[in-house]
Every structure is written in structure tokens, then in C-alpha cells.
Design a protein that fits this description.
The chain has 166 residues and is α+β, with helices and mostly antiparallel strands. It has a domain at 77-154: Translation Initiation Factor IF3 (2-Layer Sandwich). 30% of the residues lie in helices and 11% in strands. The chain contains four helices and four strands; from the N terminus they run ααβαβαββ. A four-stranded mixed beta sheet has the order 1-2-4-3, with helices on one face. The relative contact order is 0.09.
Length: 166
């Protein structure tokens, strides 16, 4: 560049260096040394490996989930839909319990369809208890499945004509 076209600053390079040196000196003076000891560590409860002792008490606590894994929890706002695969005549009593509790059951009978005597006995007992004693309903869903409804539910035919289907 041409020296004659350059604008001259009112101070020289030495003045600029002195200005920066003065700033460095004031910054050094503004930093105070630590007056206290440095931190030796930070207490973090999540890293504490010492287990606190549990207070002794006379009360014996039980894990109810272990004692009653299939506890009957009442549902005031609706019912439970159970699915079951009936393997023989003994499983029918669980279906009776579910129906008397007001729950719905979907039962698969494919494993006992070939045993006519057992199947007819199961159907007879289901009809007697669910329909005659409780006032519920038994509907055939498919060739192998039954739907057992408690008295609080009713099965309907002809839903294809209802407004909510379309």
C-alpha cells in the first residue's frame, strides 16, 4: 500500500502496546488468590455405597403381589374380559367364577371338540349356571369359541344395521 494514502493514527505502535500491557496488568491485579482451601470432593448421595440400616419394627410386612399373584381386584367402572383355552372339565369352575364376578369370558374349545362326551357335559353345565342360574348369556363367536356374558351384558344380533357401524 502507499504510505501517503494511508490514514495516520494519532498514536504510534509503542503507545498501542503500552495500552495492552496496562490492561494485562490491571487484569492480573483484579484476580485475587484463593483465601480458602480448595474443594476436596463433592458429596453425591447417588454415589454413596454405604447402606443405611433399616429401623427395626414389630410390624411384619408381606409382599401381597407374591402372596396373591392373581388377586381379584374389583372394577367399579366396567368389567374384565378374560381369555381362556378350555382343556377339560376342571377349567369350567374358573369360567363360573368369572361370570359370577360380572366379567366377560372368551373361551376356546378347540382342544375338546373331538371329545363329544366331555364337550356336551361342559355345555350343559355352562347353560345351567350361566343362563339359568345367573341370567347371563352364551354366544357362539366361531366354530371353536364361545363368548360368556354376565347378566350385566347383553348380546345383540343385527349390528350391521346400526348407525355406529357405518
Amino acid at each position: 500500500m502507499d504510505d501517503d494514502k494511508q490514514t495516520k493514527l494519532p498514536f504510534g505502535e509503542e503507545d498501542i502496546n503500552a495500552l495492552f500491557d496496562a490492561e494485562d496488568m490491571t487484569e492480573k491485579r483484579s484476580v485475587k488468590p484463593f483465601s480458602k482451601e480448595p474443594l476436596k470432593g463433592v458429596v453425591m448421595p447417588s454415589l454413596n455405597k454405604v447402606v443405611k440400616p433399616v429401623k427395626k419394627t414389630n410390624i411384619i410386612y408381606h409382599d401381597l403381589g407374591l402372596l396373591y399373584p392373581n388377586a381379584n381386584v374389583s372394577n367399579k367402572e366396567g368389567f374384565i374380559i378374560h381369555r381362556a383355552n378350555l382343556l377339560g372339565g376342571n377349567g369350567i369352575f374358573q369360567l363360573f367364577n368369572w361370570a359370577s364376578d360380572g366379567d366377560v369370558s372368551i373361551v376356546d374349545l378347540k382342544d375338546i371338540l373331538s371329545e363329544d362326551e366331555i364337550l356336551s357335559e361342559i355345555v350343559r353345565k355352562l347353560n345351567q349356571f350361566v343362563i339359568e342360574d345367573l341370567g347371563g348369556e352364551i354366544l357362539q363367536l366361531s366354530e371353536t369359541r364361545l363368548l360368556i356374558l354376565p347378566p350385566s351384558c347383553k348380546g345383540m344380533k343385527g349390528l350391521e344395521d346400526e348407525a355406529f357401524v357405518h
